[in-house]
């Protein structure tokens, strides 16, 4: 798996084009690129993975770019002040790494039409505002397969941040993957209403352990869920980055991001004048999302099943959201053989059959 991931990254690097790079290096002034982070770089998860992407941008484009990052910027009015400050300081490309920055980025983009803005996971655009995301629900499906294979009871717990379409899609895909291995598997969701809060995440994970789950998963920014799993003697799948070192005895695998290619390609487009506010989506096939290394207790049989399904996903032979598919109330949302459209994926507002909990965050 790691060798395959490395090969993908090499292909991505080669695709950058040495000729274009040479032209960039001759520019009189570097492109100033600002990054606005919802949490600290040391969260070991979401923000950490974005900062790895920023560093990849610096390494790939060298003196053609100059980057700056602002950490711990809350959603709401304060974020707009940060965006506008970065624009005033000469940053011509600004990335916001949270769905909750969306309206503030729209406002900042209107005030600074000569600056290009990019919002991660958002859906609102403008002539100088685009969106970007990695469709990690593909890797999430595989992660769910691993989780179900490790569960003795079929009861899996999921610590989740906010009920936005991106998070709902991840939970649903994880559940579909789990049920492909064990049809009676259930995924119980506890909402935290925070992206980054180790204490709240811990409390949510502990409540799931008390409810009887024997595997924990997460859409959160810290490894607190895994630490609870290890203390309880159960298993865990992480998220955002390879978190295995924080709870190695509980570790199974996890979905990871590789933001570097998106940041590199976007900066190149701004530099050469080809940038457009079109949505950008990464996939497993291009190496922007993958599974982290397996834990020692993941069996060879499970690895073979996951690898086979991964190949189907990358070839286009299989999509996680393929009908027949029902929501948790028994209503058909996809007919037999029907594959969810991108619009349907981005607007997902329901839980699939097998998820326990409310899709509205209650």
TrEMBL record:
Signal sequence, start to end: 1-27
Keywords, alphabetical: Signal
Record-annotated ABC transporter substrate-binding protein PnrA-like domain positions: 32-311
Alphabetized CDD domains for the sequence: PBP1_BMP-like
Gene3D superfamilies cross-referenced by the UniProt entry: 3.40.50.2300
Pfam families: Bmp
Protein name: BMP family ABC transporter substrate-binding protein
Organism, as annotated: Aquamicrobium soli
Taxonomic lineage from the root: Bacteria, Pseudomonadati, Pseudomonadota, Alphaproteobacteria, Hyphomicrobiales
């Amino acid at each position: 798996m790691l060798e395959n991931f490395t090969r993908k990254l090499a292909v991505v690097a080669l695709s950058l084009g040495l000729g274009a790079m040479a032209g960039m290096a001759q520019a009189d002034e570097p492109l100033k690129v600002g990054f606005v982070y919802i949490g600290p770089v040391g969260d070991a998860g979401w923000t950490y993975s974005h900062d790895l992407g920023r560093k990849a941008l610096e390494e790939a484009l060298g003196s053609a770019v100059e980057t700056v990052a602002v950490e711990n910027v809350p959603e709401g009015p304060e974020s707009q002040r940060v965006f506008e400050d970065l624009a005033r300081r000469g940053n011509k490309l600004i990335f916001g790494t949270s769905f909750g920055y969306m309206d503030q980025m729209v406002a900042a983009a209107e005030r600074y039409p000569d600056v290009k803005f990019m919002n991660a996971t958002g859906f609102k655009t403008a002539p100088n505002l685009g969106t970007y995301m990695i469709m990690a629900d593909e890797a999430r499906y595989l992660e769910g397969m691993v989780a179900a294979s490790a569960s003795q009871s079929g009861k899996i717990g999921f610590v989740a941040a906010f009920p936005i379409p991106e998070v709902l899609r991840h939970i649903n895909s994880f559940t579909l993957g789990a049920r492909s291995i064990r049809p009676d598997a259930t995924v119980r969701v506890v909402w935290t209403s925070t992206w980054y809060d180790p204490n709240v995440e811990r409390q949510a994970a502990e409540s799931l352990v008390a409810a009887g789950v024997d595997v924990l998963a997460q859409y959160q920014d810290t490894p607190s869920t895994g630490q609870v799993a290890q203390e309880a003697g159960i298993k865990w799948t992480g998220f955002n980055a390879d978190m295995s070192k924080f709870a190695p005895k509980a570790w199974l695998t996890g979905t990871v991001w590789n933001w570097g290619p998106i940041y590199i390609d976007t900066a190149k487009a701004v530099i050469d004048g080809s940038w457009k506010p079109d949505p950008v989506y990464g996939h497993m096939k291009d190496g922007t999302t993958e599974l982290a290394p397996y834990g020692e207790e993941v069996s060879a049989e499970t690895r073979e099943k996951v690898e086979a399904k991964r190949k189907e996903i990358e070839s286009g032979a299989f999509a996680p959201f393929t009908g027949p598919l029902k929501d948790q109330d028994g209503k058909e949302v996809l007919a037999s053989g029907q594959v969810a459209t991108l619009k349907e994926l981005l607007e997902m507002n329901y839980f699939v059959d097998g998820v326990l909990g409310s899709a509205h965050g209650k």
